[in-house]
UniProtKB/TrEMBL annotation:
A Pfam family annotated for this UniProt entry: Bestrophin-like
Domain of life of the source: Bacteria
Transmembrane annotation, as ranges: 9-26, 46-67, 182-200, 212-230
Stated name of the protein: DUF4239 domain-containing protein
UniProt-listed InterPro entries: DUF4239
Keywords tagged on the record: Membrane, Transmembrane, Transmembrane helix
Length: 255
């Protein structure tokens, strides 16, 4: 299930198949075995409307959660770019040797951060995380060494800036791992199946059966795909582009 929600197109195909099967079962099996008489039709409409309303609410809340996480990832990308650009400038406050080491390291560091946003390869992500951790250790050591050589409030600004660089990367990592819970996906899928089952059960005109049994499953499946796409930082179509990081990289001398 985890792999399914990380690939929106596959989720669209699988969810459409399940929703359509539920609608077909409702019309072809459930309706034949338990025919809906006129006395029960009003009660059925109440249950059907309530189920569809609940499905719409769950989809709406899930979409809101996904959009919120997408905005969070965009904000942290901007914060990362600002922190790196600020520290590149503050490096002048440290002794020459430490300043040169920090600036050289930040050029490599921002390349790794841009790759982190752009890559889709899980193995490459692990390599980037390892390289990022190593670069952070080198940058922190350079900042600490420069501050200890000239301990004063001015060099402390450079150390604080380096702390911001490291912290914003951690915030970004956490934001990318923060996804819609699996339990919410399961609940949404179950409600979608029951809703389509009721829609199929309520279709009365056999000549219109095929049309109605496709529209509802397709609509629900497209909604699931949109939510998964926004919620998937790396595999979806809607992704956070590292525009701020690229701009900062160009300003600090990225080739």
């Amino acid at each position: 299930m985890q792999q399914l929600i990380r690939h929106p197109i596959i989720l669209l195909i699988v969810s459409f198949a399940l929703m359509w099967l539920a609608a077909w079962l409702g019309h072809s099996v459930l309706r034949k075995r338990m025919p809906l008489d006129e006395d029960s039709r009003d009660d059925f409409r109440i249950v059907q409307s309530a189920t569809l309303t609940l499905l719409a609410l769950v989809i709406g809340f899930s979409l809101s959660m996904a959009v919120g996480r997408y905005d969070q990832r965009k904000n942290y990308e901007e914060e990362e770019a600002n922190a790196i650009g600020t520290e590149f400038i503050r490096a002048d406050l440290l002794p020459q040797s430490s300043s040169a080491a920090i600036r050289s390291g930040l050029v490599q560091y921002i390349e790794q951060r841009i790759d982190y946003y752009q890559t889709r390869d899980a193995k490459r992500v692990l390599q980037i995380n390892a390289s990022t951790s190593e670069l952070q250790s080198r940058l922190w050591s350079a900042a600490k060494e420069g501050a200890m050589t000239q301990p004063n409030p001015v060099t402390a600004l450079a150390v604080a800036g380096m702390n911001d660089v490291i912290n914003t990367q951690g915030y970004t990592q956490a934001a990318w791992l923060n996804r819609i819970p699996l339990a919410a996906w399961i609940l949404m899928g179950l409600i979608g199946i029951f809703a389509n089952l009721l829609v199929g059960y309520g279709v009365k005109n056999a000549s219109k059966k095929n049309r109605f049994l496709v529209i509802m499953p397709l609509t629900v499946s497209l909604s699931f795909m949109l939510i998964a796409d926004i919620d998937s930082p790396r595999n979806g179509i809607i992704r956070v582009a590292p525009l701020n990081l690229i701009g900062t990289a160009q300003s600090i001398g990225r080739p």
